[in-house]
Amino acid sequence: MKKLGQTLILTISVSALLGCNSDSPDQVMIPTTPTEDVGQPEKPTQPEKPVPTISLSTYTPGTTEGGSSDASTAVALDDNFIIVADDEANILRVYPKNGGAAIAAWNFEENGPMFKKELDIEASALLADNIVVFTGSHGNKKDGGDAMADRSHMFSVKITGTGKDTKFEYLGKYSDLESNLTEWDHSNQHGLGKDHFGLVQSAADGSVPERTHGFAIEGMTATHDESALLLGFRAPQLDTGTRAKALIIPVTNYAQLLKGTATSATFGKAIELNLGGRGVRSISKHLNNEYLIVAGPALANRNEIKEAFALYLWDGNPDSPARELNHSLEQMRIDSKGSIETIVERYNPSADVQLLLDNGDSIWPDQTAISKDLEDKDQRFQGGFVTISDTKNDVIAPSLVKISPEKNVMGVNTDTTIQLWFDEGVQFSTGDFKIYKGDTLVETIAANSPQVTLDFNRITITPKQKLDYETNYRVEMGAMIQDHQANKVPAGEMTQFKTAGQPTPLKAGDLYFMGGNAEAPDAIAFILMKDVDGGTEIYFSDRDYSIKEEKFWKRDKNGGGEPATNEGVFRWTADRFIKAGSIITIQTDTEASPIANIGQVLGTPSGIGKEETMFAMIGTEVADLQDGSAGLITKNGQFLASITLGGVTDNDIPAEIVNYSMKFLPEGKADQTNAIFDTAKCGFDRTNLATFASNIKDQSCWKLSFKSAGAAGWPLIEENSLFKNAVIR
């Protein structure tokens, strides 16, 4: 092993920063420049009352049409019943307030506005005389595909009767809100400057909605005098740099829009609220002319966050701050395994507030598949009541829970970013990151530099130039990171790593797919058949490929088409030296870039469907490849392998990888398929990869399961991997 001469140190706020095993053959202890270890400050005790607990009730679809697991918005019909919408179906259901089976329903595909495509209904506002306004999210599809024609509607109904005798009278709809919002921002109608809120970019085709710079309306209520509708945005968050504040925009002529007497929306002064770096997930009128807000991350919940969701009270004054309440919504989410989705809005609010959860991805104790994939009768969601409590007094600084590259790792890619994960949303004060070679300062990066990005609880630092090969560095961080209550992270502890040599060239046969899930958790797994150095890049895409066009191609029904921009494309980069025989699992159905058990991933998420082929390539070029998004594949590069799950429609396999292509198809019609190499049956001897390469091509060595049979995907069993002992250390 070569002697290490220079060191990379990142000064951070934790003691013993997630150290790696120094006995590992791939990792060594690197000598460091002596520094003072300031450590983690003693955490003060918060002078708060005990956090109230929440008991859960369960709601089922009963004998109403279809199933329901994804409660998305709700209003109280009276003291005994609630009306709940589901973001995966165009149906409103009536449930007993305290749980049980739905007893009435109204299908608005067949009645009222008669929307034929999924509205993705996410918010509602209860008005006088039991009039309710519902709205779609107005966001793109999960993969960034444009869905404005389907989701950009709001409509109103008048509700009479109660219980099983509830009746819905359709009043009107409006379908141009998204275009009105983007034009309002783009043409500076608010007076803050052209594109001040970045709504055109946030709503553009290809923009993933559930990102801090995405576009999704998830909260809505009327002002107390009903003069305006308040639109609460899960995304975008503001400003367009730090993305730390939540956005609320009043619609001041909503009544005229829904009656058809106005043709364009007018907007009041936009409101920016500090919700701890979160967006609006639900908003409701509350007592004393205040508003209650459920706040949550723009992205899906991240495991490292201690309090993803929180309750806030706000007095309605655009210049007043929202006050966080002392409630543990996180425990409610953990107990239910769902996402806090909505406040049940009451026309006469009280201190007791009802919350509902989206349990679409929950796996119930008596089931094996996620709830939204169960038979209709077995689907369910949950909810509970909270009593509004005192304002929370947060005096604890954020804790750093993860860093990449990890401590003492060798073979780090030379274009690495430095990423920090904290246990809550953070923001910056003034300060710098400093990169050294040994004791020589080579770069100073200010916290407000474009080289530093902040995404709720994650910070990414990008050096201006690539690091040198086989070189040791150190990076120091000033004490400029704090939470949204100004509790600062002190400078402290150190970590270090060494960069890699040249990236490893690969060809077909240097990797094989070992697994793929079309059901949650959507994921792929592949095995490396040769050692790779850090910096080695492999591209993956489930876009449809056309041999005729020699491109990833979106076919149309007339036999034509265009270059594909929908579906996923992402780049995996080895962030260290990785030995042959190591298995990499990449979770693809994420809110931003997919997640790997080892290495770094950049690009669009990919929900694997019932007819999917995932390609692996090297030397690929992708326009505008970013965290959570990607443009055209402008150069295919060299294909390495592929795996097909469920069906072969619209996908051709290039000739050069026919011998490295696996297909797993049901006997009948296309079906969402999960496939994994059966190591128990066919063995997995890492000392004899040639035999393994023969076995991997034998379909009898694979286990299959199908959505039609109620199967979930193969589980992640260890360190976000589909396989045990996946990485050779």
From TrEMBL:
<dbReference type="Pfam" id="PF13205">
    <property type="entry name" value="Big_5"/>
</dbReference>
<keyword id="KW-0732">Signal</keyword>
<dbReference type="InterPro" id="IPR014755">
    <property type="entry name" value="Cu-Rt/internalin_Ig-like"/>
</dbReference>
<dbReference type="InterPro" id="IPR032812">
    <property type="entry name" value="SbsA_Ig"/>
</dbReference>
<protein>
    <recommendedName>
        <fullName>SbsA Ig-like domain-containing protein</fullName>
    </recommendedName>
</protein>
<feature type="domain" description="SbsA Ig-like">
    <location>
        <begin position="394"/>
        <end position="499"/>
    </location>
</feature>
<feature type="compositionally biased region" description="Polar residues">
    <location>
        <begin position="23"/>
        <end position="35"/>
    </location>
</feature>
<feature type="region of interest" description="Disordered">
    <location>
        <begin position="23"/>
        <end position="54"/>
    </location>
</feature>
